[in-house]
Structures are given as structure tokens and as C-alpha cells.
Design goal:
- The structure is a single chain.
- The chain has 199 residues and is of the alpha+beta class.
- It folds into two domains: 76 residues, no CATH class; 95 residues, Glucose Oxidase, domain 1.
- Helices cover 17% and strands 37% of the residues.
- The chain is built from four helices and 13 strands.
- It has a four-stranded antiparallel beta sheet. It has a three-stranded antiparallel beta sheet with strand order 11-12-13, with no helix packed on it.
Amino acid sequence: MTETPILQLAGQLLQRLFPICRSITGDGVRETLAVLREQVEFDVREVPSGTACYDWIVPDEWNVRDAFIADASGKRVVDFKANNVHLVSYSIPVEAEMTFEELAPHLHTLPDLPDAIPYRTSYYNRNWGFCLTQRQMDALDRQGRYHVRIDSDLEPGSRPTANPGWQELPGRNSWFRLTAAILRWQTITFRASFCGACS
């Protein structure tokens, strides 16, 4: 089955967007919206931290540059740069040496899916953690010491938001309306509907 141009474009976009570390605020959201604006025109507005949105308060802005767990030899056994899902979203900064026993409460796995990395967040509870495969967890030395580093910021800022949320584009046989681009965690969902009769 031959891919249509729209499927090819979607695949190319996903390859560009997946590696970006993005949460509900931060520079990753801005970078993601900039990529999407290459395809369709829309405004981006910044909503300050602390703003009430119905029953939700926009949280502080979170940005991360690096995060890892290294063993005694300095080898990164869990590395944010290898896969940004390894870091619990909204983790606070950490720079510490610790035993496995001290580290273990901050590690998250899916034992029934030994090759999967879980996705965890800590938006409103100032905490930190790492997500790893069960196989990575099993390989950790229970008697070893570990260097943990999370180079992140969590402070008042803003939440980039796409506005107005939809744009009409002329299609070959119809009008195509992009009704929303929803950015959440590592998922990007394009909700679209076709408008008008085919010509």
C-alpha cells in the first residue's frame, strides 16, 4: 500500500517531534509548536504560571537539560539523553551520590512489560524520579553506589498555548479544518474534520 502525501508528512513530523522533551509547560512545548507552525499558521500565546483556568492552575514552568544515573565507574546506566521518557516529568534538580537502597524509591518500572519504559509525572508534588525498563532495573548492582544528576529548572514562567486552535486550509476536493493540535506528554494528537462537499 502506497503512503499518501499526508501520511508521509505525518510520519516526518512525528520523527521530528518525538525526540523533543515536552511536558505541560516549557521550551519543549515551544519547540513543538514552532515545528507545527511550519505546516499551519496559528498564534501562540503564553499563559503565566499561577493563572486560574476553570478548576486548574497553570503550574510553574519546567525545563530540563540533562539527567542520568551513573554507576561507580561513571557509566550512565539510565540516561535522559538516550530517551527523555527516562526522567519523571517535572523532576526537581538533584545532584547526589547514593546507595541503591536510597535510589530505589525513585525508580519506576513495569515488571509485566520488561522492555517498556513507563511514563510518570510529578506536576504538583515536588519530587524526582527515573523510569526504566525492568531489565535495566534487574541489571543494577544492589551493593553499588550511584551518582544521580537532574539538571532542571522549576520556577514561575508560562505555558505556551496554540490559539485560535483551528485553521481552514484549501484541500484538493474539500476544505480541511484543523480543529486542534493537542500536546500532552509524549503524545501528539491531531483532531481534524473535513468540511464541505467534494467538488
